[in-house]
Amino acid sequence: MDNSIVLFLLRAIHVVGGVLWVGGVVIVAFFLLPATQALGPAAQPMMQFIMGRRKLSVYLMILGILTTLAGVLLMVRNISLTDGAWTRSPMGIGISVGAAAAILALVVGMTVSAPAARRLGGPPRPGATPLTDAERAGLMRRLALGTRAVLVLLAIAAVLMATARYF
Ligand code: HEM
User: Fold this and answer.
1) How confident is the model at residue 120 (pLDDT cuts 50, 70, 90)?
2) Cβ(43) to ligand 1 under 6 A?
3) Residue 32 contacts by C-beta under 8 Å, 6 or more apart in sequence?
4) What is the dihedral sign for C-alpha 141, 39, 58, 159?
5) Looking at the predicted structure, is the pLDDT value of residue 1 above 70?
6) Minimum mean pLDDT range among 9-23, 34-48, 58-72
7) Is the pLDDT of residue 117 over 80?
């Protein structure tokens, strides 16, 4: 893994993936969800397009997984180069806490937000009855709660990743 091209690619995938992941969640939390909540059922066609056709939740999941995989490989490299001492350094501790927050964000996104978003925006399943207003409201609450939790965890991860080098 110490090939300089591999290292460059891992760092590029990690940082650019992280930027796009956090940026995407910010747009969902601060722009898309408030617009959907304000419009109510009238937002359904837009949600269907963004979630069903453009697959926003899949896009965010892929970014989260790529960022995490590249981060894990970079972490393994740092640990093996220093015989484990990196994990006890201030930078190692900062990055590890940030990584834990980002991984938790990925888990919450995949298990809470994405399934709710898919049900809200996806085409009705064959034979299934369309969502009632109460079901739609429940799914919106779940999506908003999940997105808020993901946003807070990603903010913690991004701040620690960006500053740990200077601890
Ligand atoms: C929101 C998600 C994330 C963002 C925005 C992010 C961003 C960054 C940035 C900007 C750096 C460069 C820091 C510097 O060189 O000063 C970095 C480094 C690092 N990140 Fe992340 N990261 C994220 C998630 C993760 C995760 C999930 C892991 C591990 C599981 C991880 C592991 C690492 C490691 C080990 C480094 C040091 C790399 C090196 O030695 O070159 N990161 N991250």
Assistant:
1) confident
2) no
3) 50
4) negative
5) no
6) 34-48
7) yes
Domain, as residue range, for 40: 4-166
What is the tally of structural domains in the chain? 1
Question: Taking the CA atoms of the chain, what radius of gyration do you get in angstroms?
Answer: 19
Q: Residue 1: helix, strand or coil by DSSP? A: coil
CA-nearest of 164, 163, 2 to 81 is 2
Q: Measured from the CB, is residue 71 less than 6 Å from ligand 1?
A: yes
Residue type for position 70: A
CA 32 from centre of chain:
15
> CA–CA separation, 110 vs 68, rounded Å?
14
Q: What is the DSSP letter of 89?
A: S
Q: How far is the CA of 147 from the centre of ligand 1 (A)?
A: 21
